[in-house]
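Thread: iron/sulfur cluster complex, take 2
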Amino acid sequence: MLADAFGREVTDIRISVTKRCNFGCIYCHDEGLGPVARPRAAHEDEMTPTEVERLVVVARELGIRSVKFTGGEPLVRSDLEEIIDRTVRQIPDVSLTTNGSMLEKRAEALRDAGLKRVNVSVDTTDPEEFRSIRKGSLAPVLRGIREALRVGLKPVKLNTVVFRRNLPNIPRMIDFVGSSDGLKLQLIQFMPELIDHRSWVVDMQEVKDWLEQNSSHVYVREMHHRHVYVVRGAEVEVVDPVYNREFCSNCHRIRVTHRGELKGCLNRNDDLVPTRGLDDDALRGAFRTVITTRVPFYGGFVREFPAPSSARGAPFELPMVQDPSS
Ligand code: SAM
Ligand code: SF4
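Output below.
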């Protein structure tokens, strides 16, 4: 297994298969495409299944043990099953992050191709609010989640972005997850770097304090030292990368853009290493370069930790979780 100069071993790779998307979430840096009736063929600038497989072969040689596919919206691609099928032959632990809108019809085929788990992004269980945030319909997403559970893609993790407007939805998301076997919740800190809107940022320490007060059990995962809280039977994992030195110090993940560029850090785009067209030795060299030259973003590049001032002292709107019927 390869490590960087800060002792961070890389065990995980996150591969974007497209930049395209059929939603238009207000916090996302990528622009949605508008309605997409059905999956489409790969674009020229997107990696082919063979190119993805070549990357995964080298990733396995270097000790990487899990793969996550993402986008854009990965289910926009009609060949995702083939990509997954080729990937699991190299690294069996393969998962997917999706907006869920096209999951229902493909969950079984994805499972048959070897997919193990799925993350589905749901910020709220209110259909109007969902449409207002994600510019898409909640109903097909919920059907996709049910189908994923039915075919055994468990656990299904629901990704909820934590930004100021969405705080009141969080207790309901916790109840929703707690009421269904096989669901977990992932609260993802809104990353203002991507689109600005600094006033949307929430102080995640306050969210974590609130979760702790309402939890029966807390544990810490090795990856990013993410804290997991068990709140009324729901497992709630917090992903809080912004201004978080601990998160970066415990980051074991590299990334690949849809164009096949290796990327050592979520927050950086100035260190991309192209891989398309490289022979096997050069491809191995590219991986080694990206892994060994990684630097923790907060704590390495950004040594000062300017607190997002708009979040400090702002009213905190989370109600206490007490009444299951509320
Ligand atoms: N389209 C898929 C989806 O929505 O799940 C996969 C790609 S999306 C970029 C991956 C995750 O990043 C989603 O859970 C999404 O909600 C989250 N995300 C997007 N923009 C974000 C931002 N500015 N801050 C935090 N999370 C964000
Ligand atoms: Fe971005 Fe995913 Fe929303 Fe599409 S569905 S706009 S990729 S967060």
